[in-house]
Amino acid sequence: YVVKEGPANVDYVVTLLKQLLRNTQLKVLVVDDSKTARLHLARLLNIYRFNVLEAENGEQALNVLDDNKDICLMITDFNMPKMDGFDLTKRVRNLYSKQDMAIIGMSTYGNNLLSAKFLKIGGSDFINKPFLEEEFFCRVNQNLDLLEYIKNLKFIASRDFLTGLYNRQHFFDVGEKLFSRAYRMQKATVVALTDIDYFKKINDTYGHDIGDLVLKKVGAMLKASFRATDLVARYGGEEFCFLLPNIEPGQAQGIFEAIRRKIESELLVLPGGEILQITTSIGVCSSLEPSLEEALSKADKMLYQAKRNGRNQVML
Ligand code: GH3
Ligand code: MG
Ligand code: MG
Ligand code: MG
């Protein structure tokens, strides 16, 4: 139905079907003072299965945005009473970056100066009215494809490929902010490091693939043991790190002791039938430290103590 102009090859149709599936999840806000224009755009967007919201001026649009934090595309007219598309775009860009929301400007009086001005203040794209339906669809989908692409890249850049946990980079990016915020309020943030015991022996005895399997298994147990507000990441090799912003330091021992016991008690049955017990040593810092780096250094010293003391234990 939507392929009217230009060549429609199989690849294009497959892309289109993927976009239709994706679009059912996406909210698009149409801002225009003309009811006819809004209806026309909503009808077009409905063909593409978008979830369409409407506003008749800038002020109303800001209210709709306030109620719907997950709008990914705003299509705005230029000339509107109260607040025009230009001012609206400036205001919205203070709240949402180009990576989080696409803004497409539209105008009947569109001239090159207007579109350039609009793009400079943060618009993602510009369409002159009247437009061809297919140009409209192509621009809308291209802008959303870009957002999706950025989102996927950000996801990949923050994760450890093997375990699916956050990676070290993300741990520091987010952790340092959480840590300093808590420090300003003179609240201790619990930071810990764990290291699998005799992991080299597991690799040497059963092979690297089984070593990887153990890392995945431990990663999954760790992921399941913490709350969404806690930061759990693969620090490197067979070491994992934790940052718990909202717990009383006195609770730390109990929390990490429970994890140590859980890992020790969940035996791993290998493809060859052998049964493997995994143990970990954990070093915890629950004192008030001025920086994440210093808290990690304390936790690392505790981890070293735990190893020296015979492994499979929590030290703090
Ligand atoms: P300890 O109890 O003192 O921690 O001894 P360990 O053998 O666990 O410590 P060591 O640091 O000597 O060995 C860690 C090993 O982890 C060495 C390295 O080859 C292995 N390793 C690091 N990353 C990976 C990985 O992604 N997959 C696998 N299979 N092994 C890894
Ligand atoms: Mg208008
Ligand atoms: Mg190690
Ligand atoms: Mg180790």
TrEMBL record:
Domain Response regulatory: 27-144
Signal sequence region: none
A GO MF term: diguanylate cyclase activity
Chain ranges of the GGDEF domain: 187-316
Catalytic activity from the UniProt record: 2 GTP = 3',3'-c-di-GMP + 2 diphosphate
Top-rank taxon, per record: Bacteria
Sequence intervals crossing the membrane: none
Top-level class of the enzyme under EC nomenclature: transferase
Protein name per UniProt: diguanylate cyclase
Cofactor: Mg(2+)
GO cellular component: plasma membrane
UniProt-listed Enzyme Commission number(s): 2.7.7.65
Keywords: Phosphoprotein
Any one of the GO BP annotations: negative regulation of bacterial-type flagellum-dependent cell motility
Modified residues (4-aspartylphosphate): D77
Organism of derivation: Methylomagnum ishizawai
